[in-house]
Amino acid sequence: FFFLKRRRKQLTMVKTTLQVMATLENVVEARPGKDFTWFFKFKCAQCDEVSERFIAVSADEKEEIPGSRGSANAVVTCKLCKRTYTVDIVPGSVGSIKGESFCNLVSLECRGAVPVEFDPQDGWAIEVEGGGKYDADLSEK
Fold it and tell me: 101 phi and psi, to 5 degrees?
């Protein structure tokens, strides 16, 4: 007889930093605007299922974690294995895009999931050469 015992994967906290590089023409800086909402797809750490839609994560919003006294910026339940994972934006981690080198844009603390895709969408503040400032939608690929 062989008896195989499958261990559950532990829900560990993973800090992930989104790094972005862009070619900017006549643009000095691009940064998330005030009250910016981030959109990510996540992969469940338990079953490796990737979310079908983009999940909104905002530093201004807190959701209660079921079965816990804590809260997070996003609380999501995996459709396949029904595990709950949480995402928090690391305070003070939001950066901007400058020049043509990799820039740290935001850091996330994820429990039970890993971000796999980012959608910039709208709400960006753009500063152009000469000092002009504009709002921009970066959702076009």
Answer: -125, 165
